[in-house]
Recover the amino acids of this structure.
């Protein structure tokens, strides 16, 4: 490529030697673009000068000096050939630039064996962040003891349950959110729930749930008291989801706190006699009435590995 640039400089020198412009065609050559012919009108008195500021030179195929004009054309054609067969190589991006946006990508492994056999509800794509809104539940030691009793009893029915590591009540479905939508959605959610006050609810009814794809089964405690306040919250969260053209929450939802789960659809094994015995364990647990009364003082939104909290008044 340096040889091609040298030819361009020779053309500029040859161009400055042309005495008078004439009607005809002039050749425009840029150091960065391919040369091209274009029509030009001649005043008969102007002199041909290279335009250094624009990075190109313009010269006529001069009738006064036909040999010089022809040589300029030849030189520029040679330059065109070299520009095609000797492209400028791309320089690699420095590591400092490549690492600038590393936090915008959620590191994900799709190996279900590393996640207890769980399967994604939707395939992972770069730039997509799994997002949902929920009420976090404070973990109490007595609640953990109750969970272990339920998990242990379910084994009698050949159901191997995995204990939930955290407890919450969902206020939205898990949706796919693009990275650049996270902050706008969080801001909109903050505005929609700003007027809500803290409240209590009771969850004492044992119930069996499955996800939409029937790939997981859950044992949870259904909310009985505080259902109306949860519906009001979901209504505002749904408005936010609609702003971003995302799925809203389920119709006629059964709000619950999941305590344990297993892979597959095992509702047939857990319902009936097993479910009745699990309910007896909850009813007979010491101070269960007080234990299963929850106060909600904040709403959270999780998007990938990012958490956002919205305190209630």
């Amino acid at each position: 490529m340096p040889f091609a640039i040298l030819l361009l400089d020779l053309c500029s020198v040859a161009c400055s030697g042309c005495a008078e412009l004439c009607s005809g065609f002039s050749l425009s050559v840029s150091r960065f673009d391919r040369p091209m012919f274009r029509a030009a009108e001649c005043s008969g008195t102007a002199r041909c000068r290279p335009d250094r500021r624009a990075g190109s030179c313009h010269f006529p195929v001069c009738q006064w000096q036909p040999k010089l004009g022809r040589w300029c054309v030849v030189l520029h054609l040679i330059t065109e050939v070299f520009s095609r067969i000797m492209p400028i190589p791309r320089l690699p991006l420095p590591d400092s630039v490549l690492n600038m946006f590393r936090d915008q990508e959620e590191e994900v492994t799709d190996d279900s064996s590393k996640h207890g056999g769980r399967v994604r509800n939707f395939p992972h794509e770069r730039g997509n962040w799994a997002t949902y809104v929920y009420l976090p539940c404070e973990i109490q030691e007595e609640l953990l003891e109750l969970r272990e009793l339920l998990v242990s009893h379910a084994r009698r029915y050949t159901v191997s349950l995995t204990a939930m590591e955290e407890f919450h009540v969902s206020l939205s479905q898990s949706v796919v959110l693009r990275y650049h939508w996270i902050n706008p959605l969080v801001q909109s959610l903050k505005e929609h729930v700003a007027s809500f006050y803290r409240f209590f609810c009771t969850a004492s009814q044992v119930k069996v749930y499955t996800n939409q794809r029937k790939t997981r089964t859950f044992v949870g405690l259904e909310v009985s008291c505080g259902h109306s306040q949860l519906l009001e919250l979901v209504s505002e969260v749904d408005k936010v989801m609609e702003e971003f053209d995302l799925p809203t929450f389920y119709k006629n939802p059964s709000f619950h706190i999941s305590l344990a789960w297993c892979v597959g659809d095992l509702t047939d094994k857990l319902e009936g006699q097993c479910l009745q015995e699990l309910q007896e364990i909850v009813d007979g647990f010491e101070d269960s009435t007080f234990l299963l009364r929850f106060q909600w003082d904040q709403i959270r939104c999780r998007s990938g590995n990012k958490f956002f909290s919205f305190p209630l008044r």
